[in-house]
Amino acid sequence: MKRSMVVTASLLAMVAGGAMARVPGATPQPEIRREGAGDRRAALAKMELQPFKFEMLSGLTDYTNGAALTPESIKGKVLLIATWQAWQPASQTLLSRLQALSAKHGKDGLVVLGVHDARKWDMATTMAGEKGAKFLMARDADGSLRKGLMVDADPDLYLVDRAGNLRFADFETDVLERAVELAVGETAESAAAVPKQLADAERAAREAAGRTTAIDGAAGARGKVKPVFAPPSAEQYELALWPKKNEDQQISASASDVQGQKWPGDFTKGEWLSDKPDYLGKVVIVDFWATWCAPCMRSKPLLEDMQHKLKDDLVIIGVSGYGSDEKNKLQVQQFMRHHPDSPLTHIFDTNGDISKAVQVRGLPTCFIISTDGTVRWQGNPLDPSFRKVAEAIIAQDPGVKARRAAEAKAAGTARGGMAQPN
Q: Which tens digit of pLDDT belongs to each residue from 230-261?
């Protein structure tokens, strides 16, 4: 695809999905997910699509792997700013990804700038060497850049496009490569046109929304009828063509193999950190994860996408904690605050009882449970077959089919009018 066409395609996709108005807290190009919430997120949203204030870099010192940046040196280029701390595991993991992006897209005009905390600069240079990070580094000696960009917790990511606009402010590390590829795929001219194109797309979306308000409002007022249905028989579950169990040898290393058995966990022994989901007639995925687990973080976009697209038939429950202290729970709650739009539900395994029931030893580990409470598959959500297996289980599940049929009948009754009382 030509560079000039990348933005247009992205904008068309936004309009088709319903673009968001440019109001405080709204997010242009929402496929690049942002961190944060509340007043801070609203303030960062106002900074996006505005000229990047180059003076924020004036307080940086101790440049390594290159000379200090100037407005001329980055004109027409893409600037990726990553704040980090050498003693933090998440920052250490990020260095390798930043180096890979620098090596891949440096020829395309990408400039990666790692901005380290004012403290422990010697440790920073040592860590960068160990990770093979050869991109431009600097020290935020007076903290002015962190203050200007409203950095709240390293690592934080910011991207300036070829037009010199702050395109994405504090976005998720999970979409780092996607954000960079989008920006380097543009010309300076197409990047400069983005603010107007977004405004035009949003205006078109609002006009389209106005034309369907009456129809949508009537449907929304009725809401989705919650039906009552008889549970399928045990024989129906036995006759279902379930996918094959996971034979990967890593299964036993990560947890007890309970495939084909009733789910032994008890959610009443944990603490719900989000609203308790309604999983009657739905397949359940139990995802054991931790905030410090890099593979767990890589699996989150997939799980969120599945929950979004399969929400009528699927509930994904994240289990974390494993008997850890209060600090661990606060870290999970902070993660949830930074991901306010995530559709996943969360439970904290306060005493480790849920984890112990299946002897979880490796993360991430997922269990896919059919509507009769039987574990049909377990393994790593990063397994290439994971999504297809989950979709196959949903397609075969008698309880899902029974719930769908009851919902369709209830919806038909609602369309035909309310039944008259006797």
A: 889 888 999 999 999 999 888 888 999 999 99
As a whole number of angstroms, the distance between CA 335 and CA 130 comes to: 28
Which single residue is written with the structure tokens 């549970």?
231
| Alpha helix ranges (H) inside 223-260 | 234-239, 250-254
Name the burial class of residue 135, with classes exposed (0-12), middle (13-18) and buried (19+) by CB atoms within 10 angstroms of its CB: buried
Torsions phi, psi of 218, nearest 5? -65, -40
Q: What is the pLDDT of residue 364?
A: 95
pLDDT of the residue at 370: 96
**Position of tokens 């393994």?**
379
Q: Please list the residues that pair with 114 across neighbouring strands.
A: 82, 137
Instruction: Kindly provide the residue ranges of all beta strands, DSSP E only, lying in 122-274, ordered along the sequence.
Output: 136-140, 156-160, 165-169, 271-272
CA distances from 268 to 251, 276, 284, 350, 414 (A): 26, 10, 16, 11, 35
Express the helix, strand and coil content of the chain in percent, nearest 5 each: 45, 15, 40
Q: How far apart are CA 343 and CA 355, in angstroms?
A: 22
**pLDDT reported for residue 207:** 65
Sequence-distant (6+) residues with CB within 8 A of 96 are 131, 132, 133
Least confident stretch, 26-40, 188-202, 359-373: 26-40
In sequence order, the 6+-apart residues with CB closer than 8 A to the CB of 276 are 345
Pairing state of beta strands 78-84 and 110-116? Answer: parallel
Separation between Cα atoms, residue 374 and residue 355, nearest integer Å: 17
- Is residue 41 a contact partner of residue 24, using CB atoms and an 8 Å limit? no
CB 360 within 8 A of CB 330: no
Does an H or E element contain 219, and which? helix 188-222
Q: How far apart are the first and last CA of the chain?
A: 65
Measured between alpha carbons, how far is residue 240 from residues 150, 159, 244, 249, 402 in Å? 54, 49, 12, 26, 13
State yes or no: pLDDT of 368 exceeds 90: yes
Number of neighbouring beta carbons within 10 Å of residue 21: 12
* Bridge partner list, 165: 51
* pTM of the predicted structure, to 2 decimals: 0.50
Tokens describing residue 167: 């395109």
The CA R_g of the chain, rounded to the nearest whole Å, is 25
